[in-house]
Design goal:
The chain is an alpha/beta fold. It contains 20 helices and ten strands. 62% of the residues lie in helices and 10% in strands. The longest helix is centred in the middle third of the chain and has 53 residues. It is elongated.
Length: 589
């Protein structure tokens, strides 16, 4: 991947934008050609005033000097009008391309992110991904908006002025353009030197964004532990690292233009001195000398901006490489090609010899064999780290099984489309996540076409309707980012309502009552008992009172099933479950 330049990958990636890029490039070139033309008109004007009837225009039949001036006036108006017209066209086209590429790149990157394995997000920090999706893509947009046109116009300037110089005076042209190889060599050398600097800038920017995102999300914890000073120092340290990385790049990029300017000065001096001598010797006309002097100025200023253009280019390429690296991240879980209907859940859900490890050599689950019959409720209990929640993640295909298989409808879940699989499952997690929006929007999330009556019915089933009505705007109340305006129990009940309104074929409750007070828990237990009646459900709980009604309870220990049975059977067995029950009910002091 590192062997291919970002610009090559980018050009290959956006094949659909090539025609638009070609058209914008033509407008850029034409604009610069007409922008270079006025010095030629100045030369013609000088030639007309000095030579009059024997001027350059006289050779084309315009002998009257007043007619020559009128002709020059008309040509000046025409050239300036065309230059302005093509400037409008290239700006509109390049800026539209920049916006389209920015949008397409961002959406492709986001779509790819959504298809990645859940472990990818566990290994990455949110701030860095946010920087790639936003700031890095914006860097590319800035280059396409400004830098691409600048490079084209500098190239057009050099070629056009070079041709004019060689037509007027090959000797002066050869000497004036002598510095060009040094400029090109310097530009290539500059790119190689500054590329790693900007790569470091982007990495430090991602780290800074990561800390800021985490701190803003965890502000309550920071305040609770009086860690404001510590976090301030941590951000100050990372901000300083980011600033230093930028300073190193700035020193190098700022030195480029002055060096280019001094090299170009040599070309200007050759034109000024040698051209003047040729005029004195009668080898060069005054008008032609004027053209050379004005054109060398037109050559000088764009080239002095070359450093700024390359600066934009290198920033964009450093960012583009990070975006492309993200897009090239392999998808660890491949989608199946079978659809999944509700009828498949009329057959047992079978866990057959399921084993799993997050890292090789550290097995989390070992040869799990379970069958969940249609309409049955099963529950998993066990100590923290025993593998309860991992089983649910495997069923949802957040991870792929290391050994064994899970079957729904008699087929391995790997054969089903992931979206079809998950759309048939309603999940209530212990990590309740609400989006910034209204209560109604959060309940209907994922079931976007449900009616308001369905939303209210689900809220009532989750024991949430009463407290929602007490909110300032009822169901239209905005809950804030991550639902921070609501209590933990309120968020949990909205999460349960979200699963209920989906009316799935299978319910998964992972610590569904973990953030609910005893009174609300009792009400929700009654609701869940009604909800899961004749409905296939899988529950994970630490509070054993919430899973007493389960048809089968599995006790996990170190990734294996230690015992199983109904609540009453396990109590009578006096095993691990009975011990947990005794602790929670206070039977054991």
């Amino acid at each position: 991947m590192s062997d291919i330049s970002p610009i090559s990958s980018l050009w290959s990636y956006f094949k659909t934008k090539r025609k638009k890029a070609y058209k914008a490039s033509v407008y850029s070139v034409l604009n610069k050609i007409f922008d270079i033309a006025p010095p030629l008109l100045i030369g013609l004007a000088v030639d007309t005033v000095v030579k009059k009837e024997s001027s350059f225009l006289a050779d084309y039949g315009i002998t009257n000097h007043l007619h020559q001036i009128y002709t020059l006036g008309f040509l000046t108006f025409l050239i300036w009008a065309l230059e302005s017209f093509f400037e409008f066209l290239y700006k509109v086209n390049w800026r539209n391309i920049a916006q389209e590429v920015q949008h397409a790149f961002r959406m492709d990157a986001y779509k790819h992110l959504q298809s990645l394995h859940i472990s990818f997000f566990e290994d990455q920090n949110t701030g860095n991904l946010t920087t790639i999706m936003n700031d890095d893509i914006n860097q590319l947009e800035r280059f396409l908006d400004i830098g691409a046109n600048d490079i084209l116009q500098v190239a057009t300037t050099v070629i056009t002025i070079g041709v004019i110089f060689f037509i007027i005076s090959p000797t002066i042209a050869a000497l004036s353009f002598l510095p060009m190889p040094f400029i090109l060599w310097g530009s290539i050398y500059f790119q190689k030197k500054i590329a790693p600097k900007y790569k470091n800038v982007r990495e430090e920017s991602g780290l800074l964004a990561s800390i800021l995102v985490n701190n803003l999300a965890g502000m309550a914890t920071i305040k609770s532990y009086v860690a404001e000073g510590f976090e301030y120092q941590r951000i100050e340290k990372q901000s300083h690292r980011f600033s230093q990385a930028n300073k190193e790049a700035i020193v190098l990029s700022s030195s480029f233009s002055p060096m280019i300017r001094m090299v170009i000065l040599c070309g200007f001096l050759f034109t000024l001195v040698l051209g003047g001598i040729h005029v004195f010797e009668g080898k060069l006309g005054v008008g032609s000398y004027s053209v050379l002097i004005f054109l060398v100025q037109r050559l000088l200023w764009p080239l002095t901006r070359l450093g700024e253009t390359f600066d934009l280019y290198q920033r964009a390429m450093a960012s583009t490489q990070r975006i492309l690296n993200l897009l090239k991240t392999p998808i660890a879980i491949n989608d199946g090609d079978l659809g999944l209907t509700k009828d498949a859940f009329n057959q047992p859900i079978v866990f057959k010899d399921v084993s799993f490890s997050y890292e090789e050599g550290f097995e989390i689950l070992k040869a799990i064999n379970i069958a969940v019959n249609p309409g049955e409720t099963i529950a998993f209990v066990g100590t923290t780290g025993s593998g309860k929640s991992t089983l649910l993640k495997l069923l949802l295909r957040f991870y792929d099984i290391s050994e064994g298989a899970i079957h729904i409808g008699g087929k391995n879940i790997k054969n089903y489309e992931q979206a079809q699989l998950r759309s048939n499952i309603g999940v209530v997690s212990q990590d309740t996540y609400l989006f910034h929006g209204t209560v109604k929007e959060n309940i209907s999330y994922g079931s976007f076409n449900v009616s308001e009556a369905d939303i209210i019915e689900a809220a009532k089933g989750a024991e949430a309707h009463e407290f929602i009505l007490d909110l300032p705007q009822g169901y239209e109340t905005v809950v804030g980012e991550r639902g921070q305006k609501l209590s933990g129990g309120q968020r949990q009940r909205i999460s349960i309502a979200r699963a209920m309104v989906k009316k799935p074929s299978l319910y998964i409750f992972d610590e569904a009552t973990s953030a609910i007070d005893n009174e609300t828990e009792a009400a929700i237990q009654k609701s869940l008992l009604s909800l899961t009646k004749n409905q296939t459900s899988i529950m994970v709980a630490h509070r054993l009172s919430t899973i007493k009604h389960a048809d089968t309870i599995y006790v996990l220990e170190a990734g294996s099933i230690k015992e199983s049975g109904t609540h009453d059977e396990l109590i009578k067995a006096c095993g691990a479950y009975a011990g947990l029950w005794a602790v929670q009910t206070g039977a054991i002091k």
